[in-house]
Design brief:
Shape: globular
Structural class: alpha/beta
Number of helices: 15
Bound molecules: 4-nitrophenyl beta-D-glucopyranoside
Largest sheet: 8 strands, parallel, barrel
Helix content: 25-40%
Strand order of the largest sheet: 2-3-4-5-6-8-11-14
Strand content: 15-25%
Distance between the termini: 21 Å
């Protein structure tokens, strides 16, 4: 057994990429500026009862106007990579069709600012802010949306491709499909398992088409980011618990990994497309398009899952087809999200990816934790977040030692920000944001992380 929570000094490989991540709707604000139109999150935030206290991203961290200060802050922390997403409704206010150059201007300025500070920009095309006009035509249940994502890719790389090396098509299609169209806790808030599976396929088709468009536009590194987890059977020797874990592993991991990296959906997942009446959206040739070669798989990891077979249990609309599967509460420390803290899930996940999907370089594109931070003067003593990050970095290092081809680590998130359905009520930042003054205050975890980057490891 690899020790992943000890205190032995660890060093990461030379060239390991260190950084932090954000997403457009979560930080930018400036929701109605320079031609941006509403996204599904603007609509969702305005729908009573959907988001904590009705919070929206109208203002957020005002990053749209404060990006220079934010880049200076990144520089002070020593970040080598900054992962951000572009807002589709800024670049294509009508969803498809003409480009709004004022929208692209913002990202142009941001990229230049990053490069001026020696920070490598990593651009995600879609981190959940679909133009509302496209949702009005069915959103991700409409096949056209996949082609429009490829158009967005072409337009964006045409403008930024001379300076941006690393591109990501989608962030977490599991969330977009199953939380957006299945359980409805994310925008657009639909609750229909058929729509959720249709969305899965059109997102993955969009990934493949966008990957091609990026390649055609000269992208040097093309990637896909998935939220993956380590799924464990409650009683490892129990075959019913094993089957339960296999099913959840299918819905959470293999449904996205297999088409992207192996060229076909898993059989058990195809059966669910059939069962929910969504198999018709998979056309001949689609799987070959989805399997467009990628250079990097982005892994977002927060927590493991523990599941068991339980007659009558229902694990919820976010996992359609999982009747009889129960998610078991894990008795370990939790974050402010109530998510269990277990770094061994990260090492297990990375080693599993290395074994099952070989020859795919990996990057942790999100990892981090929300805590109820307390500000004391000009300091935030967030030891719990430091503990979370330290444990997960040790786990990542153990996986590298075990053979995983892990190229980098990006903390989620640079700033406290709009945490989707939780609004501003949950703080994932290594930097505190005071939403009254917009003042940024690096938490102890940010200062600690700067030292980690500086020494390329942990003491
Ligand atoms: C990810 N879940 O979201 C996103 O990529 C970020 O934008 C987000 O702020 C971060 O993780 C923290 O939540 C997720 O329910 C949201 O399993 C929900 C889930 C997973 C990831």
């Amino acid at each position: 057994e690899e020790q992943v929570t000890g205190t032995a000094p660890v060093r990461f490989p030379a060239g390991f990429r260190w950084g932090a991540a954000t997403a457009s709707y979560q930080i930018e604000g400036a929701a109605a500026e320079d031609g941006r139109t509403p996204s599904i999150w603007d609509t969702f935030a305005r729908t009573p009862g959907k988001v904590f206290e009705g919070h929206s991203g109208d203002v957020a961290c005002e990053h749209y106007h404060r990006y220079r200060d934010d880049v200076a802050l990144m520089k002070r922390l020593g970040l080598g990579t900054y992962r951000f997403s572009v807002a589709w409704p800024r670049i294509k206010p009508d969803g498809s069709g003409p480009v709004n150059s004022r929208g692209l201007d913002f990202y142009d300025r941001l990229v230049d600012e990053l490069l001026d500070h020696g920070i490598d920009p990593m651009v995600t095309l879609y981190h959940w802010d679909l133009p509302q006009v496209l949702e009005d035509r069915g959103g991700w249940t409409n096949r056209d949306t996949a082609y429009y994502l490829a158009d967005l890719a072409s337009a964006t790389i045409a403008r930024l491709g001379d300076r941006v090396r690393t591109w990501t098509t989608l962030n977490e299609p599991w969330c977009s499909s199953f939380l957006g169209y299945g359980s409805g806790v994310h925008a657009p808030g639909r609750q229909d398992p058929r729509a959720a599976f249709e969305a899965v396929h059109h997102l993955m088709l969009g990934h493949g088409l966008a990957a091609r468009a990026l390649r055609a536009g000269g992208a040097r590194e093309v990637s896909l980011t998935l939220n993956l987890t380590d799924v464990r059977p409650y009683t490892p020797a129990d075959q019913h618990d094993q089957a339960a874990a296999r099913l959840i592993d299918g819905l959470q991991n293999r449904l996205f990994l297999d088409p992207a990296l192996r060229g076909h959906y898993p059989q058990d997942m195809l059966a669910l497309f059939e069962r929910f009446g969504a198999a018709g959206v998979i056309h001949a040739g689609d799987e070959a398009l989805i399997a467009a070669p990628i250079d990097l798989l982005g892994v977002n990891y927060y927590q493991p899952a523990l599941v068991r077979a339980q007659v009558g249990a229902h694990s919820g609309e976010a996992h359609p087809g999982s009747e009889g599967v129960e998610f078991v509460t894990q008795h370990m420390p939790v974050t402010a999200m109530d998510w269990p803290v277990d770094p061994t899930g990260l090492s297990a996940l990375l080693l599993r990816l290395a074994a099952d999907y070989p020859d795919t370089p990996l990057m942790i594109t999100e990892n981090g934790a929300a805590y109820d931070d307390v500000v004391e003067g000009d300091r935030v003593a967030d030891d719990d977040r430091i503990g979370y990050l330290d444990g997960h970095l040790r786990a990542a290092h153990a996986a590298i030692e075990g053979g995983a081809d892990l190229r980098g680590y990006l903390a989620w998130s640079l700033l406290d920000n709009y945490e989707w359905g939780y609004g501003y009520g949950k703080r994932f930042g290594i930097v505190r944001v005071d939403y009254d003054t917009q003042r940024r205050l690096p938490k102890d975890s940010a200062l600690w992380y700067a030292e980690v980057i500086e020494r390329n490891g942990l003491s």
